[in-house]
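Hi V.,

You were right to ask for the full record rather than a summary. Here it is.
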Amino acid sequence: MAERARVTIRGVVQGVGFRPFVFKLAEALQLKGYVTNTPEGVTVDVEGEEIGEFLRRLPKEAPPLSQIVSIEISPLPGKGYTDFRIIGSEDRDSDSPFTLISPDVSVCDDCLEELREPGNRRYLYPFINCTNCGPRYSITKSVPYDRPNTTMAVFPLCSDCAKEYHDPKDRRFHAQPNACPMCGPKVTLVRSRQSAVHGQEAMRETIEFLKQGKIVAIKGLGGFHIACDATNEAAVQTLRARKRKSNKPFALMAPDIESIRGFCDISGEEESLLRSIRRPIVLLQKKEGGVSLPEAVSPNNRYLGFMLPYTPLHYLLFHKPAEGPLSPPPHFTALVMTSGNLSEEPIVKDNDEAVGKLSSLVDAVLLHNRDIFMRVDDSVVTVTTGKRQEARGKTGNGQWAIGDRQEVNSSLTTHHSSHFFIRRSRGYAPEAIPLHSAGPEVLGCGADLKNTFTITKGSFAIPSQHIGDMENYETLHFFEECLENMKAVYRADPVAIGHDLHPGYLSTQWALRQGTGKNGQKEIYGIQHHYAHIGSVMAEEGLVGKVIGVAFDGTGYGTDGNLWGGEFLIAGVEGFERVGHFRYIPLPGGESAIHEPWRTAVSYVLDAVGDEVMDYLEPLGFIKRYGKENIERVIKVCRSGELAPLSSGAGRLFDAVSALIGLCDRNTYEGEAAIALEALIREDRDEDYPVNIVADRAMVIDFSPAVLAIVNDCAEGRDRREIATKFHNTVASVILRVVMRTVELSRMKDVALSGGTFQNRYLLNRTRAFLQAADLKVYTNKAVPCNDACISLGQAYLVRERMKSHG
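Predicted structure:
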């Protein structure tokens, strides 16, 4: 082993305590040289006899927040260093080198202990943090990740904090958000028509406001929450009336796991997710006979979305004493913590914006003066009963040699198949997804709902945080703001853009402008919506061969101009073949039918029984509820073809069944009818309904027999839970039948499932079990949501791989 080497470590290695870790390891082994942050990651120039031991221990003992992707080792001639030092960061101007940025993480146990300790100089300080915890991505303006490149630059360190910051042996060495009450950020409570209060008084008054049933906007890590006491029915109803004119569930925060157990059943993995440093919202099944919350918290839903506190400010909301030590019992067993935004706009992050926009919704605003550079909403995850998949990536064997480049297995390449994302944002973004090889830099700009974008760089895809529904200027501005930041941080300049085919999407229009405007050198690729869904699974798994794709969602623009959504594809890098789909059904009124599922239900019954439609609808109460004239108008629109686009959407079928059984006739938010239908499932039933599958150029799945059977079951007064279960079983059986027929014809064995319909846990688990029992290999989205948030990853991957194959 040479006596001197240059070691470059790539991955999430900045802002996670990596340099002090290297310093301590080098000192323990009596090595000399230095360590520094660079645009590539962390570089170590190390000299001495124990370099081999240093390289062996480096990946094994790395800090818990770090994620090593690769280590490059190059021999160097002896230098004669006399000590080991941490030196200032390098920021070379280069298009190629880049480093991965750490997401924001929750406050650590060591900091919480100091927060609770009377006499500690950070006792009850809402912004306590160290190298192992706190804000990262949300405060990072540029790389390297150093204090001058963050929003903490405006807070000069006091002498005590500076001493910690510059001491390599201190837990706060180069903790960029390091601060204390003397030199750091402070809180302020702005009360309606009253003067503001600051510091500890602001925290005390916020708690009292919440206890009184008032509503408070609270600034967190990546934006504002709107909070109220979740056990106070009047407060919850007031918040729903002011903020959310729909039945969409509210997110909740509880002080501890035991409080959540009072409301929900929690598995071991769900508890691990709740306690993890990422602190996502975890969807948990309501406990039968448990402590009940007001129905307005999560109407017609079998799940509650809970998270644990992830900032010291959150802990103080639950535990701050009027006097004496910070101790239980908590002030609240649960707080509503919903995103602080106006309808369909991005989460608010700036103080003036919060006071201006949120004052009509809240009774007070709790601010602080640490700016948020990148807004990042809370992540939402759920757990299924899937089996654990083998992690991808190479694991170093411990035999390191000069000149080697080792790929290191890390949490970047390991995804547990039994939990998946509904929304991927705080705690996870902007983590990169490793791809199977290097490729050109491209951008996937997503679709419309739940939008994200994805850029590729080297052998990585980097999805953005949750952007939201691309329905207005504010969201488009956030898209552009976030994109420019990500391009700068990752030193990326995409040469091509993938977009959805829908001409009305803002993301599509934006992409086309990039190809035709003054900077129109970009190659522009239109990627069909459901093909992109399957492409996202291929990206996660590194697949370049063809797969059988099952893409189920509500709506996506098809190549024939119709609305797709119940699709069976054979997909590869170069394109796809549509081998099966749900039979087209007219959507009377288009958007009206999506918002009012009873209209879609009428269309399905009309398709099944023709002129006898009124005779079938009357026993269901449709004529009494919606009026004969309204129904006749809907029928006329369906038959005329005007204002009734054709849809094969799986989501629309779920809507129709929900309306048929009298469960939900109006979607006040996307997927409401389907979520209510899933809430009725009894998991001890295996019966299903008949369905016709007609073989044409593509298999056409006709659900008319099932719809007719459901109508008859309703007319006979069958239990809605039984009907809902049989319907779900029917959809899973259809997937199995069509996939097996495709397997027979193609001899393929790889199946990819994607699309928002597979957020339905029961359907996903049953479908996966069926396919795996048939000896098929089943892939699903794990690193990104299966809803439209994955579209951008699929677009970017398919464009990138296509460009590679074409040279």
